[in-house]
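Running low. Got one?
___
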Amino acid sequence: MEKQIQVAIDGPASAGKSTVAKLVAKKFHYVYCDTGAMYRVVTLAALNRGISMEDTAQISKLAQEIKISFAPGEPEQKVFLNGEEVTTDIRQGRIDQNVSAVAAIPEVRQEMTNLQRQIAREGGIVMDGRDIGSTVLPDAPVKIFMVATAHERARRRYVENKAKGIKTASLEELQKEIELRDKKDSSRKVSPLTQAPDAIRLDTTQLTIDQVVDKISTIIKKTLNELG
């Protein structure tokens, strides 16, 4: 049996990480883990309970109590909060606006990081997020850092929301939200969005999804060959 490895895909909001990671995982018959969805579930749970985003102690406690799970689905993986499907709920605008604050709480990050490492322990995994290569899986043999211009990322989010029937802001508003999200993610004290020193930077602004998948697949195959 061919060796199975950990693949870490990082990058800013709406760089296309999840879409690409799912396709790469499918291609190599690996497990896909959407770490961003985990923080979104914690955010949804906190908002549903009326917990203030300033109340870090309550949010940290909540992160330890809730159960987050995934299940295969088409066209996208299903996400569950305490057994209830929340796949669409976690993509709402109110989650977009608050998830950075929740993801910046050290205790929440530690809880999610432990969970992510458990999932990735056996290898054969593609994991995407903001700090996978730098913090969660620092020894992953393949690390990709996906980037694209803020305008292009806003356009992608706009098209995706429309296709899913999710009420969306204007393109200009989405771009402002994304730029603000970048600033928050890059400047937070714990596990900021940063490119790991050994990660391969991949600018996807001018690339199709298939082209990005092909480039990453080539990198994985080369690494597998080198590892024997």
